[in-house]
Amino acid sequence: MTRFFVFVCLLAVFPVVSTKSPIFGPREVSRVEGDSVSIRCFYPSTSVNRHSRKYWCRQEAKGHCTTLISSGGYVSDDYKGRANLTNFPENGTFVIDVAQLTRNDSGRYKCGLGISSRGLSFDVSLEVSRGPGQINDVRVYTADLGRTVTISCPFKAANLQKKKSVCKMMSQSCVLIADTNNYMNPSYKGRAHISIQGTSQLVFSFVINQVQLSDAGMYVCQAGDDSSADKSNADLQVLKPDPELIYGDLRGSVTIDCDLGPEVKSVPKFLCRLKNEEACDVVINTLKTKAPDFEGRILLTTGNNGRFTVHITGLKKEDAGLYLCGADSDGVPQKGSSTQAWQLFVNEETQIPQSRSVVKGVVGSSVVVSCPYNPKEKDSLKYWCRWEETQNGRCRQLVESNGLVDEQYEGRLVLYEEPGNGVYTVILNQLTTQDAGFYWCLTNGDISWRSVVELKIVEGEPSLKVSKNVTAWLGESFKLPCHFPCKFYSSEKYWCKWSNTGCRTLPSQDQGASQAFVNCSQQSQITSLNLNPVTKEDEGWYWCGVKDGLQYGETAAVYVAVETRVKGTQDARQASAAHEEDAIEPRAREDIENKVLLDPRLSAEERAVKKVEDPAGGSGVPADSSSSAAQGRSSKVLVSVLVPVALVLALGVLVIGVLRARHRKNVDRISIRSYRTDISMSDFENSRDFGAHDNTAASPDTQETSLGGKDESAPTIEDTTETKEPKKAKRSSKEEADAAFTAFLLQANNMAAGAQDGPREA
């Protein structure tokens, strides 16, 4: 119903309601004779209250309250046949209906629970006004506050052409309000006028729009100015509108549904709260205005044909009071604004459990929010949404219990219906500074249980330490550690894999104390997630966290990517090269040593040529022929290697020549098989000086065999230790000379290698 707003009058009608008693009803009710009244009283919907006695009593002198009707079936004589009391335990209300009101029904009453005068109760004032009609020479008019009233003023034909006027009795005089000479009292200007229907009717009308409480009183209509003027009296009674009652629980929520009519569907809407005689402070409007006290916990939703809805959550006891919803071009209440009144009562004996209204977290860490809901609705859908600062405010849904998660929060957000029994849990991790704000807990059931929590981001470091993003190789084993500080020593540690429907707990392994924390190494712990073998389905978000029973604590998130290890990748090459080097290196050294002993001259020459051709030990690929610098370096290396080698070879030839000349002085001819040579006894004595022990390129314990098997014609180098060894075969002077020459070539090769180091480093 459309109402028109007047500040002072409404404050007089609707004083602030005391919140000491949990019983709530209308403070004042106005009716006229012959009408009926329906009075609704609210009570906390507990099991005890639902079955307690409800009553309606009339207050008498000295505080006594006489019961007129009760839920036990009692009805007083004055109410028999015209009153009844109905209890609605499902929503915590009972209603008293009284018909055929009389002036004698005016008075002060109580609606309550328990025993009259001693139980919980609420005071109600009922005023029954005189009904419209003629009483003696006075005609009675009634009008609702903010509506329009028309007062009829009859006159005689003799005064048809004379001036018409209306005045109002104030004290002992009648103050002119309006006349047909275009006069209008400033208090009525713009909302009242005199209307004459025509010369055929001997009556004129005085019309008042936007009726205010101050308009009530006695009016005198007059046609003519002399003693023959026609006068008539009209008594205007302004009925006080009953505000809509709203009963909310502390920490709960309420919804205000405003219907102002289609004529204001395009006009900005507002909700204001009456606090004093001067103003109605705007709480929210469609022009982006929001009161600071309601920041983060109020929404306005517009509908069709002038309808709009205001949701308020996180109720405080200070929110109780009188509210007006209305429409005005400026979005603020003004005289003449179309309004509706709402009386809000906040029950402090709430069933909604106490929960944190503010949670704090650090960047990179997590927060845990406990959301209450009506325990009777355990199967209802649970939601979590974020309040956003828009034109009317809105709450963007982030997650719900059936598995839907906002794509921007994948891997970060989970809703557990645990611990149950009226509470569910929401965990948000990987916090950023942009996550600060207000969040709502709600269900698709009882809206009165909606709650709000504010998230604040503070300075600090996350308690849990885990890698950010890691890669696991398909088919291989994978271990992911999470480090827990000392304060979680007695808590249960867990790993879980995140999905839209929750975070499934996985097997984990404790690995003792963690070294990631300096001050508590004895009690800090490492818990690892093990995947063996890794499959493609293992890719995704993983959480490590702590909990105590069904109470969840801090968590940390890490994304695990699963990839296939490709052959020939850098990691694979390095691992393969290291393995092959370890396996091949002993065989390579043995082959080189064998080659040196089988053909010492060829081996020395090949190594010298290889070092010349590839001084850097590379793959042997020739350098770019267009590079003069590279050619110059190659020439220098070649000269620096060949010159020392040539000098050493020349010296070696000279030494061999001297030795052979000396050996020919005393020669004995000895034939070993088919091989003949010159040999002397001194050769046997000097053979150890040039034997295998002087061969620096071979191990003393090495024995030579040909690639195809044992070669008896190849020389054999044996250990010369003389401990019970069989007698060794004598060697000829030629064999001794060859062995000495082999030792000499090896020494020359080492000298050449030493000489080569200089140019290579340069």
**Number of separate strands:** 44
Rg on CA atoms, Å? 54 Å
Largest sheet: 6 strands, mixed
- Global mean pLDDT: 77
Helix count, DSSP H or I runs of 4 or more residues: 7
Structural shape: elongated
DSSP helix fraction: 10-25%
What would you call the structural class? alpha+beta
As residue ranges, the low-confidence spans are: 1-19, 572-635, 665-731, 755-762
Number of domains: 6
**Strand content range:** 35-45%
Give the distance, in angstroms, between the N- and C-terminal Cα atoms. 102 Å
Tags for this entry?
762 residues; alpha+beta; Immunoglobulin-like; 6 domains; six-stranded mixed sheet; 7 helices; 44 strands; elongated; disordered N terminus
Can you offer a commentary on this structure?
With 762 residues, the protein is an alpha+beta fold. It has 6 domains: 27-129, Immunoglobulins (Immunoglobulin-like), CATH 2.60.40.10; 146-239, Immunoglobulins (Immunoglobulin-like), CATH 2.60.40; 244-347, Immunoglobulins (Immunoglobulin-like, Sandwich); 358-458, Immunoglobulin-like; 469-563, Immunoglobulin-like, CATH 2.60.40; 600-617 and 630-700 and 729-761, no CATH class. The strands form 11 sheets. Strands 1, 19, 21, 22, 25 and 26 form a 6-stranded mixed beta sheet that branches. Helix 4 (600-613) runs parallel beside helix 7. Mean pLDDT is 77; it is low at 1-19, 572-635, 665-731 and 755-762.
